[in-house]
Design a protein that fits this description.
283 residues; 11 helices
Length: 283
């Protein structure tokens, strides 16, 4: 945004050509976020210049737009034939319905603590390939196009939640989990007990568990609880991994780890044992 605004139409054709490259035009963010997560608007003169002079010349490159309710009308007046992602902040359902007149509008509301409330507002069918920051409350919709998902909550994610994730996101390939709260001890079966249903993520290749309670590491890596036949990338806290694998000797975890080709365990450097390399033979 800053590069486009500063260098577009300067008296230097080489710089103008550079500003029109995909690096600077694929994503346009018309929102400022403060350290306290407040959403601020870009000034009207900047919006006007983009609307009149810049967007008509780069609109074909734009794939992602980030707007707020004040800037949306002028920016969305342009045509974006390759737009695949649209984020609008501080907009209500009534306003959104104006833009999605021929489609159903779905709203997901995420409460963390007042006044921190986040809305996911989108039309159906959901056509984007990524979705961020789902919590325990999301609608039972099949997201056939989503391959990247981030789930985040301070309320425990239990077995039913991950069953719903597997059902609602059947083509999921990349999953990131943020939750520092332990699962219910009543529902958190030990390693040798069979869960009522083993959850399978048949296409999941990358799993990021670096900022979670250790229960979730066990939940995903224990093959009696979760089946991950194609997992090749794992990010996890080393101490959690060591505890769950019992210093890389726990056979219940081995099956979900045997195909790993990339393992991220944080910044610490550790001299690994023979058991470690036997546990992850492809590293």
């Amino acid at each position: 945004m800053d590069v486009l605004y500063s260098l577009f139409d300067v008296n230097n054709q080489r710089l103008v050509n550079i500003t029109q490259e995909n690096t600077f035009t694929n994503t346009l963010n018309f929102v400022f976020t403060t350290l306290t997560d407040d959403i601020l608007s870009i000034s009207d003169p900047i919006i006007d210049r983009f609307f009149m002079n810049i967007l008509p010349r780069i609109h074909y490159n734009v794939k992602s737009l980030i707007l707020n309710s004040l800037s949306r009308e002028r920016i969305l007046a342009s045509d974006y034939p390759n737009l695949s992602e649209l984020k609008i902040f501080n907009v209500n359902v009534k306003v959104a319905s104006h833009y999605f007149t021929d489609q159903q509008v779905e709203c997901m509301i995420k409460y963390r603590r007042f006044p921190d409330v986040k809305y996911h507002l989108f039309s159906l069918p959901f056509m984007f390939d990524g979705l961020q920051f789902l919590d325990n409350t999301f609608p039972n919709i099949i997201f056939n196009h989503v391959i990247r998902l981030v789930v985040d909550d301070n309320i425990p994610f239990e077995h039913e939640f991950f069953m719903r994730i597997a059902w609602c996101f059947p083509l999921l390939k990349v999953l990131t989990v943020y939750n520092a709260t332990s699962q219910s001890p009543i529902l958190n079966y030990n390693d040798n007990q069979l869960y009522p249903t083993t959850i399978e993520y048949p296409y999941l290749t990358s799993l990021y568990l670096l900022l979670v309670h250790g229960d979730y590491v066990n939940r995903f890596l224990n093959d009696r609880k979760t089946h991950l036949p194609h997992l090749t990338v794992l990010s996890v806290n080393y101490n959690d991994l060591r505890n769950v694998t019992r210093n890389f000797t726990n056979d219940r975890i081995r099956l979900n780890c045997i195909q790993l080709k990339q393992l991220s365990i944080g910044p610490q450097k550790i001299a690994h044992s023979e058991d470690f390399y036997a546990y992850f033979p492809l590293l």
